[in-house]
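Example 3.
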Amino acid sequence: EVQLVESGGGLVQPGGSLRLSCAASGLTFSDSWMHWVRQGPGKGLVWVSRFRADGSASTYADSVRGRFTISRDTARNTLYLQMNSLRAEDTAIYYCAGGGSYRLNNWGQGTLVTVSS
Amino acid sequence: QSVLTQPPSVSAAPGQKVTISCSGSSSNIGSNYVSWYQQLPGTAPKLLIYENNKRPSGIPDRFSGSKSGTSATLGITGVQTGDEADYFCGTWDTSLSAVVFGGGTKLTVL
């Protein structure tokens, strides 16, 4: 059974930084594209970033490119999202998901990020 | 504003059939597979349909998907109270180089 467990969310001031983690079990990173998706309060799903299964590339939404960095540690089976220069509009539940290049088979329970002074 | 367009809400009585539409363009639905996700209240999304019309293991055959041109449709037959949820369509947008979702449709079971 695949399990994805996010952590690292919290309250941060505008302009601040935060690093999210996603611990994965039951799936092999080298076989899975890994994604971050966020959902603002009462809003829909918004894709943030993905990491290619073979580790060769990452892709970002325009709204976060240059501020967020996705990475993974294969030895720890953990996916990360480093978020810098945070803005109020980045406030959301951040989900980690794994699967295909744009098919999200498995989702974590999410971690809440609140950007506020 | 979402790249894919869904109706904000639909409703159905228990046992009836309901469909949810998802409209896009040639750069997304028109040239890529569509997935559907179910998000029950207070929980994370779950994959319901992939590659337009395939169901992951454990998803009942009451749920179906189809695609025609630049639109896709999710169908639910024999609607149950436990189906009350938000439903999202998703695909890849070749022009944006991004995964895109619809705004979501809230299903209310009357």
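The two ends of chain B are 28 Å apart (CA to CA). Strands of chain B lie at 9-12, 18-23, 35-39, 46-49, 63-68, 71-76, 85-93, 98-101, 105-109.
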